[in-house]
Amino acid sequence: MAKITSVRAREVLDSRGRPTVEVDVVVDERITGRAIVPSGASTGVHEALELRDGESVRYRGRGVIKAVGHVNNELAEAVVGQDPRDQAEIDRTMIAADGTPTKSRLGANAILGVSLAVARAAALIEGLPLYRYLGSDRSMSMPVPMVNMISGGKHSENNLEMQDFLAILTGPSTYREALSQTVGLYESLRDTLIEAGVFTPGVADEGGFGPHLDRHEQALDLLMRAFEREGLRPGEDAFIALDVAATEFYEGGQYVLATEERSFFAEGMVQRLREWCEQYPIISIEDGLSEDDFDGWEALTAALGSHVQLIGDDLFTTNPKRLAMGIERGIANSVLVKVNQVGTLTETLAVVEAAQQVGYTTVISARSGETEDPFIADLAVGTGAGQIKIGSITRSERTAKYNQLLRIEEEMGDEAPFDPRTLLARFL
Ligand code: PGA
Ligand code: ZN
Question: Which residues are near ligand 2, the ion (C-beta closer than 5 Å)?
Fold first, then answer.
């Protein structure tokens, strides 16, 4: 039997230059599994709690010294002596040690760091690449990337309220080809933005462009022009996905689009999204409505759910109970999966399985504050999740994952198929 002999955490920086938790889990005093925890900006209220130091001027209160301390003391005590391959048991022990429903006492960032590092250590003990260890007896596949092109909302300094305008390319039959086509599209979008006089230097938090635009439709039009410029065929092999992140501009029962000097009730938003789906090749909409606007979500699902992927991010917060509630009410048809929204690997895997069982699609997702840790690339392949959302194709915290997927595809060959057209058939 292998045994965890020590656990050690430290404060490191994420892609926004903010502190986050890194954990080393040592097994049999010789093998170390390491993981770094990501951090969101447009967070949902139902997410597990990210513990930050607050009060102090150090890192403007964003330090994670308390969470690091919890790993080095209470959590280390709870997991030392356990076999790292007993992931479910270890996660259960940590959840019990914390004792709160939102992991608020020890911090979800502390618990997740240990949880992911344990999996890495276990894979090393087994002599398996992480994706294969996580995959166990599941059927694995290469995920289809949903790639950020234009950013607004909390991820950019521009004026747009809606957060992500993304592309899904369905022509390629390998992940590698999809990635190179996506890079081509990104270059063409830059040319298009320059030509339209709206290009701004630098990139947004997730590596996409952050132009100042008058209306949200302009982002859709620019993306359409970039498709054409790149020789892609909108509606045939090039599609648009949106992350509206509507929770962020839901105020007093209305969706407030200050950029356009307009506000909508839920039915107005549904109507607008429906019109966009008729005018543009949109096949996926994430958080089209706010996290607790269940009546609105019912209307949205009734209007578009039969032919558009409707992803719940803030709606479900990778929480098995929230997802069960959504499935029960028949809202959305897809779930965004972010490991730090729930705080353990075991609960993350449970959400993916629950979604897969009822035919909800699953999209493994990065956060806007990311790190060089490519864990989610392996997670997406191992769980056969089908789709992945990492942001854009610039910035090393993004390419850490895209590049890991290149390595995995090379290693797996036909064993992990890449088939966007079959995967997304009901939305094309
Ligand atoms: P976040 O954004 O990491 O800032 O929450 C990602 C998303 O909304 O999908
Ligand atoms: Zn989102």
Answer: 243, 286, 313
